[in-house]
Amino acid sequence: MKRALLLIVSLALSLFLLSTRHALAQAPPPQSPPSPVSERAPIAGRILTLDECIAIALEAQPKIQATLYDYAAARYRVTQALAPLLPQLSGLVSASQTQVTSPSATTGKVSTSSSRLADNFLAQMQLSQLLFDFGKNLAATEAARKLAEVAVEDVELQRQLISLAVKEAYTNILFAGRLIRVQDQAVQRAELNLRSAKGFFEVGTRPKSDVARAEVDVANARVDLIRARNALRTARVALNTAMAIDVDTPTEIQDNLVFEAANLDRAQLRGEALRSRPEYRQSKLRVSAAEATERQTFRDFFPDISGNGSYGGTQPQLNENWTLGLSLSWTLFDGGNRVARYHEAKANLEGARQRVKSTELDIIQNVEQAEIAVEEAQERIQAAQALVASAQENFRLAQGRFDAGVGTILELTDAQLALTQAQNTEAQALADYRIALARLDRAVGRR
Questions:
Q1: Which tens digits make up the pLDDT trace of 81-114?
Q2: pLDDT tens sequence across 359-406
Q3: End-to-end alpha carbon distance in the chain
Q4: pLDDT digits 0-9 by tens, 213-266
Q5: Are 236 and 251 in contact (CB under 8 A)?
Q6: Ramachandran assignment for 235, one of left (phi > 0), alpha (psi -120 to 50 degrees), beta (any other)
Q7: Which positions ≥6 away from 78 have C-beta within 8 Å?
Q8: What is the pLDDT of the chain when averaged over all its residues?
Q9: What long-range pairs does 407-414 form, CB within 8 A, spacing at least 24?
Q10: For 21, which DSSP code?
């Protein structure tokens, strides 16, 4: 009996290992991990373009890798939903010892009984196959497949969001660099004015108040320069984080903060957005999944027909025995659980259909808002460029009047402040324009 027990256990383990190996062979291949930073071209010491920054982020960003593994998990759930339709094979080994009491012969008026130990041993293989379930498991598999496709769209959605984050951080670095140059020029102009004011005061042509005012302007310009430098550091940290590299990496990027007019076709952009936005595709896939779930819950009202069989042996000599059978399982009443699940599935289906319409409205709104932002930034750039030209001329005239001794320090500092503000406004408009274009790309589903 012990030899037979070891044989059955070995057979069961062999079948388990074979089934596990088959499942692993059929599993989707895992996504390759992101390449280490050391395997890429070095970032420090070279100037990166925007496309290179986006490529680095899409390769190494852990948020994208997480969604890839979520998709792999969703594919496994499809296999789980399909599994009940395939043959189910299991092994059963049972061994026990039971005390049996039986009556013995009666002697006169006294009856006696005897007891003995009985060995019970059972070893068999059991096979079952679902023959017909009115499509319940097929509907569940279809729902799982649609949800796996939703997970695919999550991957694309995360890629688009990461691309947008890179573009915004990239532009903010250029904007901060532009502000540093503007504020550095402002400091130089303020220091020049301070030297002029001191010179006029020393020869007695200007009062001490002009020197004090010039010193205040120099201090304010230096404070603004410090803020601009800190803004550059913050923007570089944001870009490095979006690219999933060390935040202390001295990233250098190519300047693209220039104005290139964009012609927008609103109808074309709306159509592209509804085709390309992963959120819209997800909402439609969720409707398909909800339809499959509704079909599954409806078919739960019908029975399951299964075939089953077993083969094995029982003690003491492991006598051969086998069974074949056909079973019909039908739950006639379960307290209203199936009815409630069916109505829940119908409600979820209607909710999913309404969310498709809501998502469409949100996408159109996003596209319109992005278009308005682009058009507004274009107009601001043109106005800011004219403002800079006027401010430069005004400062030149004020500088000449002050140097000639006919202008006041207040006139000069006001002209200098107006020029600095005009240059800042132009830089802000250029940055806003680039960010507006990036957000428009995101609104229409581009990376």
A1: 999 989 989 888 888 777 766 665 555 555 555 6
A2: 999 999 999 999 999 999 999 999 999 999 999 999 899 888 888 878
A3: 68
A4: 888 989 999 999 999 999 999 999 999 999 999 988 888 999 988 888 888 888
A5: yes
A6: alpha
A7: 141, 144, 145, 148
A8: 84
A9: 408/210, 409/193, 409/197, 409/206, 409/209, 409/210, 409/213, 409/214, 410/213, 412/193, 413/193, 413/213, 413/214, 413/217
A10: H
Paired residues of 94 in beta bridges = 122
The residues with which 48 forms a beta bridge, in sequence order, are 253
Contact 8, 91 (CB under 8 A): yes
Whether residue 316 has pLDDT greater than 70: no
- Residue 24: its H or E element: helix 2-26
Q: Which two tokens stand for residue 173?
A: 């670095």
Residue 123 pairs with which residues in a beta bridge? Answer: 93, 313
Whole-angstrom distance, CA of residue 214 vs CA of residue 219: 9
| Reported pTM | 0.79
CB 99 within 8 A of CB 115: yes
What DSSP line would sit under 282-348, residue for residue? HHHHHHHHHHHHHHHHHHTTS-EEEEEEEEEEETTTTEEEEEEEEEEE----STTHHHHHHHHHHHH
Nearest residue to 198 via CA among 210, 189, 188:
210
Q: Reduced to 3 DSSP states, what percent helix, strand and coil does the chain have, rounded to the nearest 5? A: 65, 15, 15
Cα–Cα distance for residue pair 62/67, rounded to 1 Å: 9
Q: Which residues contact 228 (CB under 8 A, 6 or more apart)?
A: 176, 179, 180, 182, 183
- Interhelix angle 409-443/337-404, nearest 10 degrees: 150
